[in-house]
Structures are given as C-alpha cells and as structure tokens.
Amino acid sequence: MYQSHQPRTLVLDPARRLQRRPMTAERRIIWDVPSPVPPLSLLQVLAVALGGFFIVFGSVALARTGVQAWTGVEATVWGFRHNSLLAVIEILVGLFILSASPSAPAARSALVGFGTLLAVCGAFMVLEPDVLRDVLGINRQVGVLYAATGAGAVALGALVPIRQ
Predict the structure, then answer these.
(1) pLDDT tens-digit readout, 111-134
(2) pLDDT single digits (tens) 17-43
C-alpha cells in the first residue's frame, strides 16, 4: 500500500483547498478514449431524412384517406393526390430506407436501390398517369416528386463517400 511521505494536515482555508495537488498515480491516465459509437456518415443522415419524409408523407395521406377502402377514397396531401394504398406503400418504402440507416454501406445501398425504383416509377407516372390513376389515385405531380427524389437519392448515394 502506498504511503504518503508528507504528513496530513487539515486545510481550513477554502482558497488553499481548491489548489490542485499533483497526481501521484502509478500509471498514466488516458483521457482520449475512443468512442464506441462511430460518427454518423452523410449517407446515414440522408437515409434518415428520405425515409422520414416518406413515412410522414404517407402517414398524413393515410390519416386523411382512412383505411376503409384501399382504392376508393382520394385525398390531396401538400398538392399531391393519394389513396390509402399509395399511402401504405409510401410508409413501407420509408421504413425500408430508414431501417438501412444504422450503417453507411447499407444506407448507400438503400439510397441507390430505392432511389432507382422511385425514379423509374416516377418516370412511368409522368409518362402514363392514367394507367395507375384508378389503382393508386396518382397524378403527374406525384410522378414528378418520385422521379426527383429518386434521381436525387441515386446521385447522392453514389457520389457521397463513405466516411472511414
């Protein structure tokens, strides 16, 4: 057991009490401990933002249309026509993208994969909106939204580097 060479004295002066005493530890104390959680990558932030957008967008549409009839009732959410089926699809796409956000490589795969799917579906909705109007209750504006978010997700997912 380590014994001090100096006798212990009781210090009553508060100014002297606050003075720092030299450390007498036998080993160095390392304060720069690496964090067990790595910092977030920009890809993960983008995946959370895109997934969260689709979850909120689909949830608002589902709240306005209800779930009584999947294809019968239509509602306009932020200028875009929806029915219940399209709202559920948007919520599921948002959940899939959001579930890939814990790791940067998975976020990249989700952004590129679902971005490609969104861009192709959006282009199809822009070119032929009448084909899916009865089933999903869409209009050209929904197609433009999907094509733009899909192209943006593919571009950002492919170009943003994964932080090591």
Answers:
(1) 999 999 999 988 988 888 787 777
(2) 555 555 555 555 556 666 676 777 888
What residues have CB less than 8 Å from 101, skipping those under 6 apart? Answer: 44, 47, 48, 51, 107, 110
Instruction: Check residue 23 and give left, alpha or beta (phi > 0: left; psi -120 to 50: alpha).
Output: beta
| H-assigned helices in the chain | 14-17, 42-65, 84-99, 104-127, 133-136, 140-159
How far is 114 from 99, CA to CA, in rounded Å?
12
Backbone angles phi, psi at 83, to 5 degrees: -130, 180
Dump pLDDT digits (tens) for 48-67.
999 999 999 999 988 888 88
Which residue do the tokens 């009865």 mark?
134
H-run or E-run covering 75: strand 74-77
Contacts of 116 (CB under 8 A, 6+ apart): 150, 154
* Residues in CB range of 78: below 8 A, 6 or more apart: 57, 60
